[in-house]
Amino acid sequence: MIFWPWYQTIVQSKWFIFIIPLILIAVIVWAIIRLAQPSARPTATHSPDKISQAVEILNVRLAKGDITEEEYERIKSRIMK
User: Fold this and answer.
1) CA distances (Å), origin 22, targets 16, 17, 26, 28, 76
2) Cα–Cα distances in Å, from 81 out to 44, 49, 76?
3) CA separation (Å) from 80 to 5, 12, 53?
4) End-to-end alpha-carbon separation of the chain, Å?
5) What span, in angstroms and rounded, lies between the C-alpha atoms of 19 and 23?
6) How many CB atoms lie within 10 A of CB 63?
7) How far apart are CA 50 and CA 33, in angstroms?
8) What's the whole-number mean pLDDT along residues 18-43?
9) pLDDT score, position 25
10) What is the pLDDT of residue 30?
11) Domain spans of the chain?
12) Is residue 4 helix, strand or coil?
């Protein structure tokens, strides 16, 4: 069998025996740390159903007179963000 010269050098050297397990351990540690961290992507905290329910409650409060029209507009703009 014909071996490339660099292959013989790597396999015959003793450091090769230690490098592969170290790389494997480093990858496993990196994967564990990566999975343990919360995602950097923003998640949708307000579904369309929750928004429509909030607006419905807001409309009822306005109709009852619990809030003024200015408060209604301010709160509704916050909900729609």
Assistant:
1) 10, 9, 6, 10, 56
2) 12, 14, 9
3) 67, 66, 12
4) 68
5) 6
6) 9
7) 34
8) 83
9) 95
10) 94
11) 5-36, 48-80
12) coil
- The encoded tokens of residue 10 equal 């790597």
Q: Tell me how far the alpha carbon of residue 73 is from its chain's centroid.
A: 32
The tokens for 40 are 């950097």
Q: What is the mean pLDDT of residues 20-49?
A: 81
Q: Which amino acid is at 54?
A: A
Provide the pLDDT for residue 31: 93
Residue 20: both structure tokens together: 């592969």
Report d(CA 52, CA 50) in Å as an integer.
5
Q: What is the pLDDT of residue 67?
A: 93
pLDDT computed for residue 13 by the predictor: 67
Q: How many CA atoms lie within 13 A of 22 on its CB side?
A: 5
- What is the C-alpha to C-alpha distance for residues 26 and 20, in angstroms, rounded to an integer? 10
49 versus 8: the higher-pLDDT residue is 49
Whether the pLDDT of residue 27 is over 90: the answer is yes
